[in-house]
Design a protein that fits this description.
Layout: E1 7-13, E2 16-21, E3 36-39, E4 46-49, E5 56-58, E6 64-69, E7 75-76, E8 81-87, E9 93-96, E10 106-111, E11 119-122, E12 134-137, E13 143-148, E14 153-156, E15 162-163, E16 167-169, E17 174-175, E18 178-182, E19 186-188, E20 191-192, E21 195-199, E22 203-206, E23 209-214, E24 221-224, E25 228-232, E26 239-241, E27 246-249, E28 257-259, E29 264-268, E30 280-284, E31 290-293, E32 303-305, E33 314-317, E34 323-326, H1 330-336, E35 343-349, E36 354-357, E37 363-364, E38 370-371, E39 377-384, E40 388-391
Parallel strand pairs: 2-3, 6-8, 7-9, 8-10, 9-11, 15-18, 16-19, 17-20, 18-21, 19-22, 20-23, 21-23, 22-24, 23-25, 24-26, 25-27, 26-28, 27-29, 29-30, 31-33, 32-34, 33-35, 34-36, 37-40
Antiparallel strand pairs: 1-2, 3-4, 4-5, 10-13, 11-12, 13-14, 30-31, 35-39, 36-38, 39-40
Length: about 400
C-alpha cells in the first residue's frame, strides 16, 4: 500500500466489503462500488467507494460518534459526524462546523470533563449559531444540539442528562444551557436565555439577565447589581433581591423573601417563608389575585406603583400596617390597555390605612388621595387622560 498504509477487511458479504484502517483511503485502497471504509483514527468517519477502484468519498449518510481532545483542536466537523464527544482535560477544544447547506442536519456536542478548559463550537467562517459566532460548553456533561436550518445554525434541546458541577457564565457572555439536572451552583454575570434544568445548588446573579429559566431551584436565589430573572419553577431556598434588581417566579417559594429598598420580587404562586424586605414584594395567589399587605404579615409591601401590565384585580390587606398603592398616569394606562377600561382595587382589611394615590398632580374623583373606609370595599378606577381617575 502507498506510504506503508495498512488496511484490514472487517466483513465481506457476497461481493461487498467493509474495510478499516488509519488515514484517508482515497487513491490507496482498492474496493468495489459502495464498499465502506471506517477510518479507525476517528478523524475521517465513514467512506464509500465510488468507482470500483481507489476512489473514495466521505459518506454523510452514515452517522458516527467521534471523540476529540485538545490534540485534535481545531477540529473540523466531518460530514458523517452526528455525535462529537469532547474531552478538554488536556486543554481547550475548538470544533468548527461545516458550511450551512444540509438542511435538517443535527450534530450533538457534549463536554465530558470537569476541567476549566472550554469547548467552543464555532461557526464556519461568518456563519452563526443562534446569531452568535460560537457556542461555548464549560461544564461537565454540558451539551448542545446544533441544527442546520438552511440559513444558519440554531441550538435545539439535547437529550436530558445530569450535569455534575457548577455553571458559570462570564460577564458579557450569552448562554443557552439545557440539562435535566444541575447539581452545582449557577453563578451568572452574563445572559442566560431559554434555559432549562433543575438546580440543586444556589443561583447567584450579578449584573446579569435570565430571560427564562425553566425548572426548580432547590437552593437560594440572590440578585445583586442590575440583575433580573424570570424563573418558571419552584424555589425551595430564599430569595434576596438587592437594590435595582427584579425577580419574577412563576411557581411557589418555600423559603423567605428579602427585597431591598428598590428591589422587586413577584411570585405567581404561594410564599411559605417570612419576608424581611423593605422593597416591593408582590404575591399572586392561585386565584390570580394581587394581594398587598402591610409590615408584619406574610409580605412586606408598604408602597407599590401599579404597572400598566398589572391588569388583574388588586387586594389590600392592611392588618399589619399601612399600605399605599400608587397609580400609573391615566394616559399611560389608556395607551397600554385600550380594551381594559378600569383598575379594580379592594380592601380586605383596613386595620391600618389603606390608600390609593394618583400619579403627580392627577386626582381620583378630584381628590389627591383615596382612602378605604370600609373593609371589603371595592372600587373601579376609570382613567381620564390629562385629569386622572374617576370611580364608577
Amino acid at each position: 500500500m502507498p506510504g506503508g498504509r495498512k488496511y484490514v477487511t472487517l466483513l465481506t458479504i457476497g461481493t461487498k466489503s467493509i474495510f478499516s484502517g488509519n488515514g484517508d483511503p482515497n487513491g490507496s485502497l482498492s474496493g468495489l462500488v459502495n464498499d465502506l471504509y471506517i477510518q479507525a483514527d476517528g478523524s475521517g468517519g465513514i467512506w464509500r467507494n465510488l468507482d470500483g477502484a481507489t476512489a473514495w468519498a466521505q459518506d454523510a449518510s452514515v452517522e458516527t460518534v467521534t471523540s476529540i481532545n485538545n490534540a485534535d483542536s481545531p477540529y473540523t466537523v466531518l460530514p458523517g459526524d452526528a455525535y462529537v464527544i469532547c474531552n478538554a482535560v488536556a486543554g481547550p477544544i475548538t470544533a468548527t462546523l461545516p458550511a450551512i447547506g444540509t438542511t435538517g442536519r443535527t450534530i450533538q456536542f457534549v463536554k465530558t470533563d470537569a476541567s476549566a478548559n472550554e469547548v467552543t463550537i464555532d461557526g464556519n467562517g461568518a456563519e452563526t449559531i443562534n446569531g452568535a459566532a460560537n457556542q461555548p460548553l464549560t461544564s461537565i456533561h454540558e451539551a448542545a444540539i446544533v441544527h442546520d436550518n438552511g440559513t444558519d445554525w440554531t441550538i435545539g434541546f439535547p437529550i436530558p442528562m445530569v450535569a455534575i458541577g457548577d455553571l458559570t457564565v462570564a460577564v458579557g457572555e450569552t448562554r443557552s444551557y439545557r440539562a435535566g439536572r444541575l447539581t452545582g451552583d449557577v453563578t451568572n454575570g452574563g445572559t442566560l436565555d431559554g434555559v432549562s434544568g433543575i438546580v440543586t445548588g444556589d443561583f447567584a446573579l450579578t449584573n446579569a439577565s435570565i430571560t427564562r429559566w425553566f425548572g426548580d431551584i432547590t437552593g437560594n436565589v440572590t440578585l445583586t447589581g442590575t440583575a433580573n430573572a424570570v424563573i418558571y419553577g419552584n424555589v425551595t431556598g430564599d430569595i434576596d433581591a438587592a437594590d435595582g434588581t427584579t425577580v419574577t417566579v412563576h411557581g411557589d417559594v418555600v423559603g423567605a423573601t428579602e427585597s431591598n429598598a428598590s428591589g422587586t420580587i413577584r411570585v405567581y404562586g404561594t410564599v411559605t417563608g417570612a419576608s424581611t424586605g423593605t422593597g416591593t414584594e408582590r404575591v399572586f395567589s392561585d386565584r390570580v389575585m394581587g394581594m398587598w399587605t402591610g409590615p408584619g404579615t406574610a409580605r412586606t409591601v408598604n408602597e407599590y406603583t401599579i404597572l400598566t401590565t398589572d391588569i388583574v384585580p388588586h387586594d389590600i390587606d392592611a392588618t399589619g400596617g399601612a399600605v399605599e398603592l400608587n397609580l400609573p398616569t391615566a394616559a399611560s394606562w389608556i395607551a397600554a390597555n385600550p380594551d381594559i377600561p378600569f383598575i379594580r382595587i379592594s380592601a380586605v382589611n383596613i386595620a391600618n390605612a389603606a390608600t390609593v394615590d394618583p400619579n403627580g398632580a392627577e386626582t381620583i374623583n378630584a381628590a389627591a388621595l383615596y382612602t378605604f373606609a370600609t373593609a371589603y370595599d371595592s372600587i373601579d378606577l376609570y382613567p381620564v387622560s390629562g385629569t386622572g381617575w374617576v370611580i364608577r
